[in-house]
Specification:
Keywords: Signal. Pfam families: SBP_bac_8 (PF13416). This is Extracellular solute-binding protein. This protein is of the alpha/beta class and 447 residues long. The chain has two domains: 222 residues, 3-Layer(aba) Sandwich (D-Maltodextrin-Binding Protein, domain 2), CATH 3.40.190.10; 161 residues, Periplasmic binding protein-like II (D-Maltodextrin-Binding Protein, domain 2). The protein contains 18 helices and ten strands. The strands form two sheets. It has a six-stranded mixed β-sheet, with helices on both faces.
Length: 447
């Protein structure tokens, strides 16, 4: 999804971050288009051969299954199956192609990934083109987070997608900057500074700024504050009837007030996330806090560099929210639907989700995975050995079931990249920024 300015939408930003994400500090993920590299024994053409069935995977960016060795493991367990993955680097290119293939009923992979910002549109307008996975062998509803399961479930109870990763948010903060500003640095004490309330987070920001190290700000951007504040609400941009209500949404209004207060209170570094200036600000230590889901940790590590090791830490956010996540679906028009259902169920089972987290940093949507040692005992050495498994698991369990709409991403992006950017960087009033965002959204929605 793009605005008229051509800036990438949230899913595009997430993929930018995923290409840099470290698997618990062990290495970086790398972006891929069609990898041109077949798994062991797979034919380059993706067809059947040698008495084996080729199950095709269509994904965007890096899902990590190949890199984590899960494809190889599955093929060892099922010698009659081989897996071929094709990846398009950015979701804003991948998703329109998926809709085109669904419309024609051809060109579909046996398994197709769907990003969370698109799942409502697929579930409400394309559900009849996907297999109901709710009763598939090997799929246990209770192993998934209830809110994640609900996101890909139709009103009549059909579940067309199995959850892969999620993005429960915490607050990453610079201990060295907090210490110099006279604030506590222990992650439990830091979390208590703003527990339960984003306005208390701003109050902490004011405390920080009174003694802030020269040239630093409390938080990176107003848009980052808004994103985190709005993410913890059940109702944001749409009502349960599927109508856009963002202009009257209490959650949106409150998150907007908090974000613009951060800008007007000079708590922000006036940056735009995932731009070069943002990257440079990490390297230069220009801001003390940033809202971060698990996949952001590797990005922070890469951009901040070795000199900031053990300067960053992770604390619970004022309120839990989600940023990111995807699903695996099985189109009815695929060539090998039975085999695809089995593979999708296996890849999203708790054990495989835990393995993917350990090796690639993708946080599980399976709540059953949180009890496994790969997740429960996970710590990140770059972030002061923070217990990220326990911290993000607790956040994930508290995220509400959100009412999603087909253009959630478009509405959100225009609020942050048009309205808030004008307030944060151009000095416009909150009212002027809001009116600019509304005009841009209405134009994009043809209203």
């Amino acid at each position: 999804m793009r605005t008229s300015s051509g800036r990438p939408g949230r899913q595009g930003r997430r993929m930018v971050a995923l290409t840099a994400a470290a698997a618990l500090g062990a290495g970086l993920l790398t972006g891929c288009a069609d990898d041109g590299e077949d798994p062991a024994g797979a034919s380059s053409g993706g067809g059947d051969g040698g008495g084996r069935t080729t199950v095709t995977m269509g994904v965007f960016g890096v899902f990590g299954y190949r890199q984590a060795g899960l494809y190889d493991t599955y093929m060892q367990l099922h010698p009659d199956i081989r897996i071929k993955e094709t990846s398009i680097e950015r979701n804003e290119n991948y998703y329109p192609q998926l809709l085109t293939h669904l419309g024609s009923g051809s060109g579909l992979a046996d398994i197709q990934a769907v990003e969370v910002s698109n799942v409502n549109e697929v579930t409400t307008t394309q559900a009849d083109k996907f297999i109901d996975l709710s009763k598939a062998k090997g799929v246990e509803k209770d192993t998934f987070l209830p809110w994640k399961w609900a996101q890909s479930t139709t009103k009549d109870g059909r579940t067309i997608g199995l959850g892969t990763d999620i993005g429960p948010m915490a607050i990453c903060y610079r201990k060295d900057l907090f210490r110099r500003a006279g604030l506590p640095t222990d992650r439990k004490k830091v979390a208590r500074l703003w527990a339960g309330d984003w306005r208390t987070y701003l109050a902490t920001g004011k405390r920080y700024m009174r003694n802030a190290p020269r040239g630093t700000a409390f938080v990176d951007s107003a848009a980052g504050v808004y994103n985190a504040a709005v993410a913890g609400n059940a109702r944001r941009y749409y009502n349960p009837g599927g109508e856009p209500v963002y202009q009257d949404s209490p959650a949106v209004k409150e998150a907007w007030r908090i974000a613009t207060a951060a800008a007007k209170g000079k708590l922000t570094a006036r940056l735009q996330q995932f731009q070069k200036t943002w990257d440079q600000a990490y390297a230069n230590g220009r801001f003390a806090t940033v809202s971060c889901p698990p996949w952001m940790l590797g990005y922070i590590k890469e951009k901040s560099g070795p000199k900031a090791e053990d300067q960053w830490d992770v604390a619970a956010a004022p309120r839990p929210g989600n940023w990111g996540g995807s699903f695996l679906t099985v189109p009815k028009a695929g060539r090998h639907t039975d085999e695809a259902v089995k593979l999708a169920a296996w890849l999203t089972a708790p054990e495989q989700q835990a393995t993917l987290f350990r090796k690639q940093g993708s946080f599980p949507s399976s709540r059953a995975a949180y009890k496994l040692p790969q997740v429960a005992k996970a710590r990140h050495p770059y972030f002061g050995d923070a217990p990220i498994g326990a911290l993000f698991s607790a956040a994930a369990e508290s995220i509400p079931t959100q009412v999603l709409g087909p253009k959630d991403s478009l509405i959100h992006q225009n609020i942050t990249d048009v309205g808030l950017l004008q307030v944060d960087q151009q000095g416009k009033t909150a009212d002027e920024g809001w009116k600019a965002a509304v005009r841009s959204i209405d134009n994009a929605l043809d209203r």
